[in-house]
């Protein structure tokens, strides 16, 4: 429903301002079809979280196959080494290659769908549309443009992926999920310095509070006598979190208006470039003996399962962004944090101490506060709502809610500035 008002200013010649106000929610009972996208987005969000948790658990289980076990025969006990596959650098390369197939799989899927449904499909036109963000204008894709747009997102995608997988070698997935939730706090700090966004005191306070939660989790994790090398995992996941925030920042600056199809192309290019740049690292680690493994020792079931989960997360996250908003999809980090802790405790028997539980709660609450729009936390808005509550009158304030779609470039910049993650199609982790 659309209502238009025309306001003429007297005394000024031909100075007319037309204000068009779109009131999409005036209908008291919206039709059922208007609710379907959000129901579908909720399902996509749950599946995306399940895929992320599945990838983390399968990866951790694959690395844990390297643990040795005791075999007792009569009065003699011998230590039998397990399958040695602590190869985080090799697995990171495999993840990059898997995620680089996002656009080819989408392209083939669209082509097969057009054949089955007898609908027209132009491969050249589809590719031209998807590659537009990489080379806007008549000149198309150029080497200089590719470097300018993709260099920084690719570099930080590499450091994010390496830090995340190395962390899973030393700490449980629930710990990595908790530390990753502070990425919103990192993004908020970066938006203040790089995007010149005015900060709110209350959000700055909760940034510090979230880091306090990480400190509590790190304290109990590193003081566990059974996890003497856990500090390596904590440092790795914090490095990965900072890199992820920088990846999201430069991705948003390079590709502010990409749709879901274009995001698939961008992600494929980023991770293909990451694989081409990164492949000497696992090769050097293998030849130098710092990463010891054999092809026969690779747990192919866990490896393939984790890679499939990683690829599914890429598709589901991008589809969820097309259906909803970055704010709504960012709530998946809270679900990921809770679900990873439950799976660690009940399925893998990982004990969770009181400091870790308290740290999880602090990080989760701080994460939610940082995702709230600035206007909700502004003193003027709080005073306005308090006054209306005391007077019994409802004040109609223009405040974005979870179902608000934002399409413009300026809106996406505001999302970054307010702490809402405008991440790429798939988290670089």
TrEMBL record:
User: Which keywords does this Swiss-Prot/TrEMBL entry list?
Assistant: Membrane, Transmembrane, Transmembrane helix
Which parts of the chain span the membrane according to its record? 96-118, 149-169, 175-195, 200-219, 231-251, 263-281, 301-320, 353-373
Q: Which residues belong to the signal peptide in this entry?
A: none
Domain of life, source organism: Eukaryota
Output this protein's name.
EamA domain-containing protein
